[in-house]
Amino acid sequence: MISIPRRFVLPLLCVLSAALWAGSAMAAAQSFRVPLTGADQVPAVETSGKGMAEISYDPATRVVTWLITYSGLSGPVTMAHFHGPAAKGENAGPLIWLTKQGSPADNPIKGQATLTPEQAKDFAAGKWYVNLHTKDHPAGEIRGQVLPRG
């Protein structure tokens, strides 16, 4: 058993507390504001539609939440997804439905999901985008890349 002199106990506790605090600070929740535009579609879509995705992500729990508002689209949102992995300017398949499959989308669109470890890695690397689809634009009318802050 290791014996620690009393005069070192308090400083040691301070160092350990600081290390624990720093570790929890690194895992703090992240928030993103993602503008959604037709110009970010690939290929670009000419539309007066626009939107904003307010996203928060907790790396400790891998829980992502979203609140998405939109206006001016060519018609009702038929589907909304997180797509990836893809860099900005690339296309990828849907990963997570942001709306209930087969139901009309609300405005705002709200929800949450728990990511797999692989999804969490790609999300944190900025390889996901939000895509809102309409009848006139089944491949997506507005989109925005979820990028970590630089």
Description of the molecule:
The protein is of the alpha+beta class and 150 residues long. The chain has one domain: Immunoglobulin-like. The chain is 19% helix and 37% strand. It has a four-stranded antiparallel sheet with strand order 1-2-3-6, with no helix packed on it. Strands 5-4-7-8 form a four-stranded antiparallel sheet, with no helix packed on it. It is elongated and about 75 Å long.
Question: Summed up, what is this model?
Answer:
The protein has two helices and eight strands, in the order αββββββαββ. It has 150 residues and is an alpha+beta fold.
Question: How is the secondary structure organized here?
Answer:
Layout: H1 6-26, E1 30-37, E2 50-58, E3 63-71, E4 77-83, E5 94-97, E6 109-114, H2 117-124, E7 128-134, E8 142-146
Antiparallel strand pairs: 1-2, 2-3, 3-6, 4-5, 4-7, 7-8
The Cα radius of gyration reads: 21 Å
Q: What's the count of strands? A: 8
Second rung of CATH, namely the architecture: Sandwich
Which word captures the global form? elongated
Largest sheet: 4 strands, antiparallel
Salient structural properties:
about 150 residues, alpha+beta, Immunoglobulin-like, 4-stranded antiparallel β-sheet, 2 helices, 8 strands, about 20% helix
